[in-house]
Design goal:
It is built from 14 helices and no strands. It has helices spanning 3-24, 27-32, 38-47, 50-59, 70-96, 99-106, 109-121, 127-144, 153-178, 184-206, 215-239, 245-251, 254-267, 273-294. The protein starts with a helix and ends with a helix.
């Protein structure tokens, strides 16, 4: 592959990452208005997406699922387990604390990705990367303005937001490694089965409402499955094949920017100049990290 082709692929992957982040930026809105319980909503999100994901996986000519060696299939299982943990914990976090706190804390995943890359792969982050990460996180904090709870359920919800970031960081690292040899469709289809299989008993055992009770409730779940799972997560999985794990993780900080925009458009939550400044800081931080990673 020549340099021009590689640059074109990287540019397309960056666009895919940002569009995917925008799609999953709608997730908290779908969850907040869901008629099903938080873990049940997570199950339906994945389960309703599986027919499309498996049709995609079976139709492509990359490699049939049975052709993947055992080591890669195990990684797909781990991806499904980590994503199940991410969804279950994050959806409960949204219920127990504010959407702002939950979104902010869940997007601390870049810190855990960078730490894991450093500790596990001896890939020490550069000063420019750390500066970009700090800029993006500071901008996100200003944008969301997390008013952290000091007691009761809000403390638990905030803690679950941090645990969500750990699960999602692990998921990103596994998917990035898989995308060196596995297709996006194969990863999403097989890991999705594992995710749904884990979430189903958790949802039933929780005693929460499992089925929505109106057509609008089902429409909400279908929208969540299509926008956040099929489109959003698939675009992100594709992008991870062409971008460094650390940059992919920080690029996903575009998610809270879009979440704030959607809240303004759909829920009437206005953005002041401080919030707009925070959004711009996130974008500046992403750009700094991109320059740091491409300079390696």
């Amino acid at each position: 592959m020549d340099r021009t082709s590689g640059q074109r692929d990287a540019a397309f992957a960056m666009i895919a990452l940002l569009v995917g982040a925008a799609c999953i930026g709608t997730s908290a809105l779908w969850v907040k208005v869901s008629e099903a319980g938080p873990v049940s909503t997570a199950f339906w999100r994945v389960f309703l997406a599986l027919p499309l994901l498996w049709a995609w996986a079976l139709a492509e000519r990359h490699r049939p699922l049975r052709a993947y060696p055992a080591a890669e299939r195990r990684l797909m299982i781990w991806a499904g387990l980590f994503f199940a943990g991410d969804l279950a914990v994050w959806h409960w976090s949204i219920v127990l604390t504010s959407v702002a706190n939950s979104t902010l804390l869940a997007n601390l995943a870049p810190i855990f990705v960078a730490l894991a890359a450093w500790l596990l792969f001896q890939r020490k982050p550069s000063g420019r990367f750390l500066a970009g990460l700090a800029t993006a996180l500071a901008g996100m904090a200003v944008l969301i303005g997390g008013d952290f709870g000091l007691g009761g359920q809000r403390v638990l919800g905030d803690a679950l937001g941090v645990v969500t970031a750990m699960f999602y960081a692990a998921y990103q690292l596994v998917v990035t490694r898989l995308r060196a040899s596995a297709s996006t469709a194969s990863i999403m289809a097989l890991s999705g089965v594992i995710t749904a299989a884990v979430l189903l008993p958790l949802a039933l055992a929780s005693g929460e409402r499992f089925f929505p009770h109106t057509d609008g409730g089902w429409g909400n779940l279908i929208g969540l499955a299509l926008v956040s799972q099929v489109i959003g997560q698939s675009l992100i999985a594709y992008a991870m094949a062409h971008l460094p794990a650390t940059f992919s993780s920080v690029g996903l900080l575009f998610q809270p920017v879009m979440a704030a925009l959607f809240a303004w458009l759909l829920l009437g939550e206005t953005l002041g100049w401080i919030e707009i400044g925070g959004a711009l800081a996130v974008l500046v931080g992403i750009r700094i990290v991109h320059q740091a990673e491409t300079a390696r």
